[in-house]
TrEMBL record:
<feature type="domain" description="ABC transporter">
    <location>
        <begin position="7"/>
        <end position="250"/>
    </location>
</feature>
<dbReference type="GO" id="GO:0005524">
    <property type="term" value="F:ATP binding"/>
</dbReference>
<dbReference type="Pfam" id="PF00005">
    <property type="entry name" value="ABC_tran"/>
</dbReference>
<dbReference type="GO" id="GO:0016020">
    <property type="term" value="C:membrane"/>
</dbReference>
<dbReference type="InterPro" id="IPR003593">
    <property type="entry name" value="AAA+_ATPase"/>
</dbReference>
<dbReference type="InterPro" id="IPR005670">
    <property type="entry name" value="PstB-like"/>
</dbReference>
<dbReference type="InterPro" id="IPR017871">
    <property type="entry name" value="ABC_transporter-like_CS"/>
</dbReference>
<protein>
    <submittedName>
        <fullName>Phosphate ABC transporter ATP-binding protein</fullName>
    </submittedName>
</protein>
<dbReference type="GO" id="GO:0035435">
    <property type="term" value="P:phosphate ion transmembrane transport"/>
</dbReference>
<dbReference type="InterPro" id="IPR027417">
    <property type="entry name" value="P-loop_NTPase"/>
</dbReference>
<keyword id="KW-0547">Nucleotide-binding</keyword>
<keyword id="KW-0813">Transport</keyword>
<dbReference type="GO" id="GO:0016887">
    <property type="term" value="F:ATP hydrolysis activity"/>
</dbReference>
<keyword id="KW-0067">ATP-binding</keyword>
<dbReference type="InterPro" id="IPR003439">
    <property type="entry name" value="ABC_transporter-like_ATP-bd"/>
</dbReference>
<dbReference type="GO" id="GO:0005315">
    <property type="term" value="F:phosphate transmembrane transporter activity"/>
</dbReference>
Amino acid sequence: MPHPPSLATQNLTLRYGRKVAVENVNLTVPAGKITALIGPSGCGKTSFLNCLNRLVELTPQAKVTGQVLLGDVDIRSIPVVTLRRRVGMLFQQPNPFPLSIYENLAFPLREHGLRDKVAITGTIEASLRQVGLWDEICDRLKHPALALSGGQQQRLCLARALALKPQVILMDEPCSALDPLSSEIVESLMRDLRGEYTLLVVTHNLAQARRIADQTALFWAVDGVGKLVEMGDTEQIFDQPQDDLTAAYVTGRKG
Ligand SMILES: Nc1ncnc2c1ncn2[C@@H]1O[C@H](COP(=O)(O)OP(=O)(O)OP(=O)(O)O)[C@@H](O)[C@H]1O
C-alpha cells in the first residue's frame, strides 16, 4: 500500500460574505498520522474541514483564498469528484443513504465507475470487514441501512468512505452523536486506520484527542475570526503548550 499524502494549507482564508470564518491558516496534516483539531464552538473547525475537500463550494456565499495541497498538488487542479474520493469525510450525524446496507456501498462504487458485480461485492465485504461490521450484518445486506443502530450507521458510513479507497479521511466529531460503547469502537477504528490513511479529526473531546492523535491543532476565534493558535505533537500541546490560550483551553480554564 503506497504511503498516503499529507494535506497542507497555505494562507487559507474562508469568508462567508463579509464574515471571515477562518483566517490565514498554515497547517500541515502529516501523512499517515492522526491529527486532532480542537477548539471552542464557533472557532471555524467545520468550516476549515469543508475547505479541504471543497465541500465549502456548496455554500453560495463562501469564498476561499490561499491554497490546499494534497501531497504537492493544489486541490483546485483535481476534478472535484476525484478529490472527494481521495479525501473522504465522516460527519457528526451518521448519514447513510435511505437505501439498503448493500446499496449504501454499491451506489457510490458504481458512481465512481466500478461496474463489475463481483468486484463490487468483494469491495463491500472487505470494507464492512475493515470496520468490523461484516459478521454483525452479513445476513441482512438487503435491509435498510437506516434500521441499523447509530453506532452501526456510523461504521457503515466509514465503510462507505473506505470502499472508495481514499487517501485522507476528514472526520467532523465522528463520535459525539454516539453512545459510549459505539464511540469506543469508532475510536479504535481510527487507530486501526493510522498509517494507511491521513486522518484529520475534529473533536470536542480533549481526552479523545489525547488518546488517539499524534498531532493536535488548536483553533480559536479571535474577535470572531477563526485562527490556528498552535499545532504540535499531542503530548506537547497538552503537557507543554507554548501559547497561553492553549494552556487555558487544555486545562479547562477557557473555552
Ligand atoms: N454558511 C455560513 N454562513 C455564514 N456564517 C457561517 C456559515 N457557517 C458557519 N458560519 C460561521 O462561521 C464561524 C465558524 O463556524 P464553524 O461551524 O466552522 O465553527 P466550529 O468550530 O466548527 O463550531 P462547532 O464546534 O460549534 O461545530 C461561526 O461564527 C459560524 O457562525
